[in-house]
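Regression test attached.
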Amino acid sequence: MLTGLARPDAGTIHIAGIDCSVRPKAAQHLLGIVPDESNLYPELTGYENLCFCGALYGMRKHDRQARARELLDRFGLGEAAGRKFAGYSKGMKRRLTIAAGIVHQPQILFLDEPTTGIDVASARQVRRLIADLNAGGTTVFLTTHYIEEAERLCRRIAFIVSGQIVRIDTVEDLMRQTEGRYVMQFAVAGSAVGLGEAMAAEFPRLRCQVIAEDSIRVESSDPVRVGPLVRFIEEHGIEVSEARKVRPSLEDVFVRVTGIEATAMKREKEKAGAGA
Amino acid sequence: MRAWIAFWNILVKDMRSYYLKPPNVSWGLIFPLAWTGMFFIRSGAGLDSIPALLPGVVGVSVLFGTTSLLAVTVTFEKKGRSFERLLLAPIPLELLMLAKTTGAILFGIANAFVPVVMAAFLTDLSDVNWLTLIPAVVLIAVSSTFLGLFIAVSVSEVFEAQTFSNFFRFPMLFLCGLFFPLEQLPIWLRPLSYALPLTYGADVLHASIHRPSHMPLVLDFGLLVAFCMALFIVSLRNIRRKWIK
């Protein structure tokens, strides 16, 4: 709706003072859009694609050529500038698609799943580029299923479930929910299956959960005393190989707010991505 | 000015990516050549039959040249989601769709003149009224292109575009008076003929090359313009309804 590809059935949209619900095209020159699919033109080279996208926003020939060269260098694609987009790797395609989204220097950038399905090095590079754009004054709307990515890159986060925003807040305020919660995680040498109930009975003020065959998670509203827990586990014939304090994450907040297991959601997304 | 920069670049990209590609250029040459040869041999009337065949071959070349490529290219870009990039650009939809269709219109016009050039080597074309023939070719190209656009917006797969195009094109070969006079058609089919834009284009082509027109030329041209506008408006409405939800 904000980008103009869907019409609102109620309410109004204002971008930079322009009422987009009445004039959807009027604000499009302010927006850069990077869809979840790298949808540039396979038959054009990287350089031609950027020049063409600049032309769509009315940039003059000299300006768009200079900007295309600048972006290709900035995105590490200078050497591939003359190669056809169809021959790019997934990470290169993603970077060029982001470059195409900002070729006209938009004030607002929409990024849909910018790092889904690309290799680790490219994903890190893309995250760095997004952070740089934001630091340079571009407002970035980032849609992602990777909660740690949102936590790392965003200032305000909206949790959307079934098309509804269930919570919108700054990262600091969202994380405040986890204040006063203490989490310890124990790695064990044997199988911890079945130990969760015994621990819950022995330590009723703690929330004990066997999260994997060799891993137990303990949550409490008070600092967790490790000694009794380690002794209890070892009395059951299971050796504790590691005990570490875990900082509650935004994923914990997400799970608490939405009731959806974030990892399950991410797995679904990756499965869908692999199948596509 | 900004919108016209976009218009020009969309047109140039489409010409380079689709219409000037060697397979399409060769198709644009071979197709009219094959039609001309086929009808010339089939008629068996010698070189004298060329002026009577020429309007039909010109009409068919334009019809097939425009609808084939436009219906496929728009559907192809829509499927690959690169068309979304155009819809998101700050260009009025009307101008965007004119930019997307102008390449096909020019390709259709170029196709039309392949049989004309060939005929010029075989027969005397000094009696041809170019002042009516050229506008007629342009309007046939525009109406056929907009028909291709209408088809492209109505389907979602490339093969559907081809099938749906043929649903219109092949009946038009027989119903529009390109090769057979409308009077030879059964009376119950004639209303269908008058509902097709090519009927009016074919009448002007015949009148420009070898015989008097069946209808006043002003009426032919007026109806061709009306068909062009109607097809374009309906296609735009369908784009807004289907692609901008």
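Expected vs. actual: identical. Chain B has a mean pLDDT of 88.
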